[in-house]
Design a protein that fits this description.
By secondary structure, this protein is of the alpha+beta class. The protein has a domain of 58 residues. 41% of the residues lie in helices and 13% in strands. It has a two-stranded parallel sheet with strand order 1-2. The termini are far apart. This is L-serine ammonia-lyase. InterPro entries: Ser/Thr_Dehydratase, TrpB-like_PALP_sf. Belongs to the serine/threonine dehydratase family. Keywords: Lyase, Pyridoxal phosphate. One of its GO terms (molecular function) is threonine deaminase activity.
């Protein structure tokens, strides 16, 4: 973002509740380790965010958002519907 001079492009970090290590690190101003990952998306969670993620947040504003598991499910459903519509729009029409 910095290298491309995209200073006006917003970045939103989305984490599920129970796995918000980036949000916790932003609040603390340093990396912190969560006691556990407590979410349905456990394979996507990290107990500790890397230093590079915080370094990026210092260079470019990043908004951290936490979503519930229901919110995550709706987002995935929406993405699936959007992909289906995109594929239908790209399908050649006959006749």
């Amino acid at each position: 973002m910095v290298r491309q001079q995209w200073h006006d492009v917003p970045v939103i970090a989305v984490e599920t509740e129970g796995a918000a290590s980036f949000s916790a690190a932003l609040r603390a101003g340093k990396t912190v380790e969560l006691e556990a990952i407590n979410t349905v998306a456990s394979s996507l969670g990290a107990k500790r965010v890397c230093e590079q993620a915080l370094a990026c947040a210092r260079q470019h504003p990043i908004t951290s958002v936490q979503v519930s598991k229901e919110g995550l499910c709706w987002a995935l459903f929406f993405m699936d519907c959007r992909q289906t519509l995109r594929l239908l729009a790209m399908t050649p029409r006959r006749g």
